[in-house]
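Lab notebook, design round three. We kept the backbone fixed and only want residue identities now. Task for the bench partner: fill in a sequence for the structure below.
Input C-alpha coordinates:
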Protein backbone atom coordinates (compact mmCIF):
# COMPACT_ATOMS: atom_id res chain seq x y z
CA UNK A 1 0.00 0.00 0.00
CA UNK A 2 2.24 2.74 -1.36
CA UNK A 3 0.07 5.62 -0.19
CA UNK A 4 0.31 4.65 3.45
CA UNK A 5 2.06 6.87 5.94
CA UNK A 6 2.96 6.32 9.56
CA UNK A 7 0.89 7.55 12.44
CA UNK A 8 3.35 9.37 14.66
CA UNK A 9 1.44 10.20 17.80
CA UNK A 10 2.48 10.31 21.40
CA UNK A 11 1.21 7.66 23.78
CA UNK A 12 0.41 10.39 26.30
CA UNK A 13 -2.27 11.68 23.91
CA UNK A 14 -3.96 8.29 23.85
CA UNK A 15 -2.43 7.28 20.54
CA UNK A 16 0.21 4.80 19.49
CA UNK A 17 3.89 5.45 20.02
CA UNK A 18 6.48 3.69 17.91
CA UNK A 19 10.27 3.59 17.59
CA UNK A 20 12.10 4.88 14.56
CA UNK A 21 14.51 2.26 13.11
CA UNK A 22 17.55 3.99 14.60
CA UNK A 23 15.82 4.12 18.01
CA UNK A 24 15.07 0.40 17.85
CA UNK A 25 18.71 -0.38 17.07
CA UNK A 26 19.82 1.81 19.97
CA UNK A 27 17.51 -0.10 22.33
CA UNK A 28 18.76 -3.46 21.06
CA UNK A 29 22.37 -2.32 21.49
CA UNK A 30 21.66 -1.24 25.07
CA UNK A 31 19.86 -4.53 25.73
CA UNK A 32 22.74 -6.62 24.41
CA UNK A 33 25.12 -4.68 26.65
CA UNK A 34 22.96 -5.64 29.65
CA UNK A 35 22.49 -9.32 28.82
CA UNK A 36 21.84 -11.63 25.88
CA UNK A 37 18.50 -12.53 27.47
CA UNK A 38 17.32 -8.92 27.34
CA UNK A 39 18.51 -8.60 23.75
CA UNK A 40 16.77 -11.80 22.66
CA UNK A 41 13.51 -10.91 24.44
CA UNK A 42 13.24 -7.41 23.04
CA UNK A 43 14.22 -8.54 19.54
CA UNK A 44 11.65 -11.37 19.48
CA UNK A 45 8.95 -9.09 20.89
CA UNK A 46 9.62 -6.56 18.12
CA UNK A 47 10.14 -8.97 15.24
CA UNK A 48 6.92 -10.91 15.92
CA UNK A 49 4.79 -8.11 17.32
CA UNK A 50 4.38 -9.77 20.70
CA UNK A 51 2.89 -8.34 23.86
CA UNK A 52 4.91 -8.52 27.09
CA UNK A 53 2.76 -11.41 28.37
CA UNK A 54 3.23 -13.31 25.12
CA UNK A 55 7.02 -13.10 25.04
CA UNK A 56 7.23 -13.96 28.76
CA UNK A 57 4.89 -16.91 28.17
CA UNK A 58 7.03 -18.52 25.45
CA UNK A 59 7.99 -22.11 26.26
CA UNK A 60 11.30 -23.74 25.44
CA UNK A 61 9.52 -26.22 23.20
CA UNK A 62 7.99 -23.38 21.17
CA UNK A 63 11.37 -22.11 19.98
CA UNK A 64 12.73 -24.61 17.47
CA UNK A 65 16.32 -23.74 16.60
CA UNK A 66 16.62 -26.68 14.22
CA UNK A 67 13.88 -25.34 11.96
CA UNK A 68 14.56 -21.77 13.17
CA UNK A 69 10.93 -21.04 13.96
CA UNK A 70 8.86 -19.90 16.92
CA UNK A 71 5.29 -20.85 17.80
CA UNK A 72 3.41 -17.87 19.27
CA UNK A 73 0.29 -18.31 21.39
CA UNK A 74 -1.22 -14.85 21.14
CA UNK A 75 -3.64 -13.38 23.65
CA UNK A 76 -6.82 -11.28 23.38
CA UNK A 77 -8.36 -13.39 20.64
CA UNK A 78 -5.46 -12.99 18.21
CA UNK A 79 -4.18 -15.75 15.93
CA UNK A 80 -1.82 -18.55 16.96
CA UNK A 81 1.04 -18.26 14.49
CA UNK A 82 4.27 -20.09 13.68
CA UNK A 83 6.89 -17.73 12.25
CA UNK A 84 10.54 -18.05 11.16
CA UNK A 85 13.37 -16.88 13.37
CA UNK A 86 14.94 -14.35 11.07
CA UNK A 87 18.61 -13.91 10.31
CA UNK A 88 20.13 -10.59 9.33
CA UNK A 89 23.70 -10.67 8.07
CA UNK A 90 23.77 -6.94 7.46
CA UNK A 91 22.75 -5.95 10.98
CA UNK A 92 23.76 -8.45 13.73
CA UNK A 93 21.50 -6.74 16.28
CA UNK A 94 18.50 -7.93 14.22
CA UNK A 95 19.63 -11.57 13.90
CA UNK A 96 17.16 -13.26 16.22
CA UNK A 97 18.36 -16.80 15.51
CA UNK A 98 21.82 -15.85 16.80
CA UNK A 99 20.32 -13.87 19.70
CA UNK A 100 18.28 -16.85 20.83
CA UNK A 101 21.20 -19.26 20.49
CA UNK A 102 23.37 -16.90 22.55
CA UNK A 103 20.72 -16.80 25.28
CA UNK A 104 20.26 -20.57 25.37
CA UNK A 105 24.01 -21.04 25.79
CA UNK A 106 23.91 -18.99 28.99
CA UNK A 107 20.43 -19.91 30.27
CA UNK A 108 20.50 -21.78 33.59
CA UNK A 109 19.07 -25.27 33.41
CA UNK A 110 16.69 -24.81 36.36
CA UNK A 111 14.06 -27.22 35.07
CA UNK A 112 11.70 -24.45 33.96
CA UNK A 113 9.89 -25.04 30.68
CA UNK A 114 9.73 -21.31 29.95
CA UNK A 115 12.10 -19.89 27.36
CA UNK A 116 13.00 -16.72 29.25
CA UNK A 117 13.75 -17.11 32.93
CA UNK A 118 14.60 -14.71 35.72
CA UNK A 119 17.96 -14.56 37.49
CA UNK A 120 16.41 -16.49 40.38
CA UNK A 121 14.99 -19.10 38.03
CA UNK A 122 11.51 -19.72 36.73
CA UNK A 123 9.31 -17.69 34.46
CA UNK A 124 10.11 -14.03 33.92
CA UNK A 125 7.04 -11.95 34.80
CA UNK A 126 5.74 -9.32 32.39
CA UNK A 127 6.39 -6.60 35.01
CA UNK A 128 10.07 -7.61 34.95
CA UNK A 129 10.08 -7.37 31.17
CA UNK A 130 8.51 -3.93 31.46
CA UNK A 131 11.27 -2.79 33.82
CA UNK A 132 14.10 -4.17 31.70
CA UNK A 133 12.64 -2.56 28.57
CA UNK A 134 12.37 0.75 30.43
CA UNK A 135 16.00 0.46 31.48
CA UNK A 136 17.20 -0.34 27.95
CA UNK A 137 15.11 2.39 26.31
CA UNK A 138 16.28 4.93 28.89
CA UNK A 139 19.90 3.93 28.26
CA UNK A 140 19.23 4.39 24.53
CA UNK A 141 17.97 7.92 25.17
CA UNK A 142 14.34 7.34 24.20
CA UNK A 143 11.72 9.83 25.44
CA UNK A 144 9.44 8.61 28.27
CA UNK A 145 6.42 8.02 26.00
CA UNK A 146 8.39 5.39 24.06
CA UNK A 147 9.59 3.42 27.08
CA UNK A 148 6.73 0.92 27.08
CA UNK A 149 7.20 -2.56 25.56
CA UNK A 150 3.94 -2.29 23.63
CA UNK A 151 5.70 0.29 21.48
CA UNK A 152 7.55 -2.68 19.95
CA UNK A 153 4.36 -4.10 18.44
CA UNK A 154 3.39 -0.67 17.13
CA UNK A 155 6.91 -0.28 15.74
CA UNK A 156 6.78 -3.51 13.74
CA UNK A 157 3.42 -2.58 12.24
CA UNK A 158 4.56 0.93 11.39
CA UNK A 159 7.83 -0.25 9.86
CA UNK A 160 6.06 -2.84 7.69
CA UNK A 161 3.48 -0.30 6.52
CA UNK A 162 6.26 2.20 5.73
CA UNK A 163 7.97 -0.55 3.74
CA UNK A 164 4.86 -0.92 1.55
CA UNK A 165 4.13 -4.44 2.81
CA UNK A 166 0.66 -5.63 1.81
CA UNK A 167 -1.77 -5.11 4.69
CA UNK A 168 -2.92 -8.73 4.56
CA UNK A 169 0.68 -9.77 5.27
CA UNK A 170 1.04 -7.16 8.03
CA UNK A 171 -2.15 -8.57 9.57
CA UNK A 172 -0.66 -12.07 9.61
CA UNK A 173 2.66 -10.89 11.04
CA UNK A 174 0.86 -9.22 13.94
CA UNK A 175 -1.50 -12.15 14.49
CA UNK A 176 -4.61 -10.02 13.98
CA UNK A 177 -7.87 -11.83 13.24
CA UNK A 178 -9.54 -8.77 11.74
CA UNK A 179 -8.04 -6.40 9.18
CA UNK A 180 -9.59 -3.52 11.12
CA UNK A 181 -7.03 -4.07 13.88
CA UNK A 182 -4.27 -3.61 11.31
CA UNK A 183 -5.83 -0.58 9.65
CA UNK A 184 -5.31 1.55 12.77
CA UNK A 185 -1.61 1.69 11.86
CA UNK A 186 -2.35 3.35 8.51
CA UNK A 187 -3.13 6.98 7.79
CA UNK A 188 -3.61 8.43 4.29
CA UNK A 189 -4.48 11.85 2.97
CA UNK A 190 -7.04 12.62 0.24
CA UNK A 191 -4.20 13.57 -2.08
CA UNK A 192 -2.36 10.29 -1.50
CA UNK A 193 -5.55 8.31 -2.08
CA UNK A 194 -6.26 10.21 -5.31
CA UNK A 195 -2.71 9.69 -6.58
CA UNK A 196 -2.90 5.96 -5.83
CA UNK A 197 -6.24 5.67 -7.63
CA UNK A 198 -4.93 7.58 -10.65
CA UNK A 199 -1.84 5.35 -10.87
CA UNK A 200 -3.94 2.21 -10.66
CA UNK A 201 -6.40 3.36 -13.31
CA UNK A 202 -3.61 4.45 -15.66
CA UNK A 203 -2.07 0.99 -15.33
CA UNK A 204 -5.43 -0.60 -16.26
CA UNK A 205 -6.49 1.75 -19.08
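Proposed sequence:
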Amino acid sequence: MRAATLQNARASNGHMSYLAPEELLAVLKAARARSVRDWAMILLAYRHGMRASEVCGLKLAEADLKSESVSIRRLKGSLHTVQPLYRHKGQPLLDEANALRAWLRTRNGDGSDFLFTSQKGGRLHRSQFFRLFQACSAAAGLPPEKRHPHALKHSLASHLVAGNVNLALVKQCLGHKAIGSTMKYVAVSDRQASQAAQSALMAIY
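Keep this in mind before ordering anything: The two ends are 20 Å apart (CA to CA).
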